[in-house]
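Notes for week 9. Today we move from apo structures to complexes. The key idea is that a small molecule is not decoration. When we ask for a structure prediction with flavin mononucleotide present, the ligand SMILES becomes part of the input, just like the chain. The input block below holds both the sequence and the ligand string. Read it once before you look at the output, and try to guess where the molecule might sit.
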Amino acid sequence: MDVLLLNGGGRRDGFTAAMCRSFSSSVESKGWGVCEIPLLELDIRHCTGCGQCCESGICTISDDMSSVYDAMKECDLLVMASPVRFSGPSSILKVAIDRFQPLWHLGEERGGYAAGMLCGGSEKPDFRSTLTVLRSFAVTAGMRWVGDACFPDTDHAPVSDAEAQAEGFGRQIVNELKPLTPR
Ligand SMILES: Cc1cc2nc3c(=O)[nH]c(=O)nc-3n(C[C@H](O)[C@H](O)[C@H](O)COP(=O)(O)O)c2cc1C
């Protein structure tokens, strides 16, 4: 399986980045390929809702999103990682999700799988609305949702706990998807 890991974290040394690293090494150890894209490093403009992708299936904005589109074409499993921000995904991740509007307009049944990895600062973050956003994007784009790992209390918990959870999530995903065919 080829994995596209969209890292929507805002801190290079934050929990989201640590979870991405652990997830990657977990699935890579089973022979899967991972392409991690730290969205913070890219110049991705907002979807303007111009509607031109309705006709062509292609976004007219020329920016770093082109490399994300290319990586998306290759992947069997999309993993979206984000901190919870005001109970939603980071704007860093959401800007990229909105730019996948061409997939909705194409009504493309692209197949493949999608999953989420979240963290939040408080003891009991409300992960539900973020998961709703990620799941609804995945399903709209024709991917099957295969699960999530949500790590709370980053204000107090050690990063090693988040790494352990992400590592376990990687193992779980490999076991669940192993019997299934890649896209
Ligand atoms: C703008 C902003 C909004 C946030 N909103 C929430 C929130 O609604 N719930 C929560 O539990 N934590 C919230 N946090 C805390 C982050 O989820 C937490 O610090 C997380 O570890 C940040 O991810 P990172 O470690 O990858 O940088 C917020 C942080 C920021 C900067």
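The longest strand covers residues 144-151.
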